[in-house]
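Hi R.,

Quick one: here's the Cell wall synthesis protein Wag31 sequence you asked about.
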Amino acid sequence: MRLTPAEVHNVAFKKPSIGKRGYDEDEVDAFLDLVEDELARLIELNNELTSRLAAFESGQTPPPREVAPEPAAPVELVKQPSEPEPEAVVAQPAAPAEPTFQAGGDSHIQAAKLLGLAQQTAERLTADAAQEANETLTTARAESERLLAEAHAESERLVTEATSHSETMVTEATALAEATERDSRVKAESMDRESQRKYTEVMTQLTTQRTALEQKIDDLRTYERDYRSRLRGWITEQLEQLDGSNDGPETEQ
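And here's the predicted structure, written out as tokens:
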């Protein structure tokens, strides 16, 4: 698959989701700009050499002068160190060997070699750039999947901890409520027993006092009857004595 500068220029990578890590966008864009410029330069050089070769073969120009394509500048892609990421990827295509022309009839061969070398260099750089982009995408995708798995695991852990904590709180609250209810029931039963005991004690005292009062009333009634009987006997006796004393003088007369 051939790659053009326009395709390199228009390539767009998906941005990572919020909270996920990825390659620095500015560095990726800078790397793609370098790839685009180098690819355009090599294509331009390839076209120039092709034109010279065609002109030379048609006899319109003298044999080409000795030229050597400028070695491609090394391109580095360094990732941000803020988060643990895969190691920085450094792409440094090897500089093409400098061909030299030989005088005489070998100029056609040298031009063809130069053209082939330029084309190979362009294809190699294109392949390296595509491979680098694929590796970048693969690494970013793997990192995204790893972060997603970690986030999912962390979410499950938090949910598990929250559920366990909630169940513990519910269990403790239930136990506390049961203990409070049990204590309240025990206290209520104790208060009921105490109230019943005091009621029984008071009623017993009242019954005893009532019995004593009734006995005292009976004693007073008995005393009243005896007193009345003795009083009646004494009055009768006094009346009899008075009657006897009145009968005596009348008899003597």
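Residues 135 and 249 are 168 Å apart (CA to CA).

Cheers,
M.
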